[in-house]
Fold this protein.
Amino acid sequence: MEPKKPKNVFQQGAISSEFIGNSIAKHQTKTSIGAHNIFLGQVRADVIDNKTVAAIEYTAYDDMANAKFHEIRESAFEKFDLTCMHIYHSLGTVKAGEICLFVFVSSPRRKVVFKALEFIVEAIKADVPVFGKEIFEDETHQWKVNS
Amino acid sequence: MEISIKYFGQIAEVTQINEEYIEFSGHDVSELLCVLHSKYENLKHKDFQVAQNQELVSEDTKITGETIALLPPFSGG
């Protein structure tokens, strides 16, 4: 399958489990697929200096981010034998415990999807201009840094 | 030339605006940064990268009049 033009990667707010479930269901008609792999990024209630993270507020340089998501997509299709691939990332406020990143890869064979998913998630973390503001329960904040 | 500069995340907290247009007569990124550092003193305490036309550039990259963006460390996912 040819790599497609990027869909809109960004969603306002958290990514619901219903949305994730529906995405899986939509692939039942694609019967050349033998293996899916899914990464779900969840907002962690980190405790920093006795203050607990209640939510992360995401902003992005949208145009550049979409271009980077597209590049990551293209290079993933080039490197791995994928049938399809979907990326969704939240913008705006996502509460602790909610999902902010959903990456879904599918292939005829399992070994491919393990490698592809790690490649894609690491590339997103390193190359896409998204910025997370960690909001504490007392409404102060600090800026998240990916480790 | 007039260039558009976008600020994101904690950089936008320092500048207090998300975007502005400035008249720039220098040549490269380092000269532009001099202008911005003198305008926003607290920028020097911040870690950021510069993008021109949505690509990351280095300090000696020539400013061509495209959109410039100051990007703090990425923290998606």
